[in-house]
Amino acid sequence: MAALRHDRVETPLLLDGPINGERFLVYVEQVPAPTLSPGDIVVLDNLGSHKGKAVRQAIRKAGAKLLLLPKYSPDLNPIEQVLAKIKHHLRAAQCRTINNLSQAIATILATITRRNAKLFLP
């Protein structure tokens, strides 16, 4: 998981296993929520784990506004393009351990510059 801002990718988290409502809530509360400022807009797709009341509360408590994308709209979600780029580079890296995977992701994220981040946004 990661967040895409207009100038960078931030708050990446690597999980071993699927994302569910509980895991997503912990991520939101502990990773991106502390980085949010009043007036920030958080855009989430309609994944079931994103719709929990506690998730909305954590985002709003930080002073940010929450917007949910329409159902079945991956083309409207710019983070999907970032994740596709990461996955492409990870396949090429052929990592076989969690440590190597984590290092490869960090290296890939470091290549996403301010200019690159803007290219992902509509």
Automatic annotation (TrEMBL):
<dbReference type="Pfam" id="PF13358">
    <property type="entry name" value="DDE_3"/>
</dbReference>
<dbReference type="InterPro" id="IPR038717">
    <property type="entry name" value="Tc1-like_DDE_dom"/>
</dbReference>
<protein>
    <submittedName>
        <fullName>IS630 family transposase</fullName>
    </submittedName>
</protein>
<dbReference type="InterPro" id="IPR047655">
    <property type="entry name" value="Transpos_IS630-like"/>
</dbReference>
<dbReference type="InterPro" id="IPR036397">
    <property type="entry name" value="RNaseH_sf"/>
</dbReference>
<dbReference type="GO" id="GO:0003676">
    <property type="term" value="F:nucleic acid binding"/>
</dbReference>
<feature type="domain" description="Tc1-like transposase DDE">
    <location>
        <begin position="1"/>
        <end position="101"/>
    </location>
</feature>
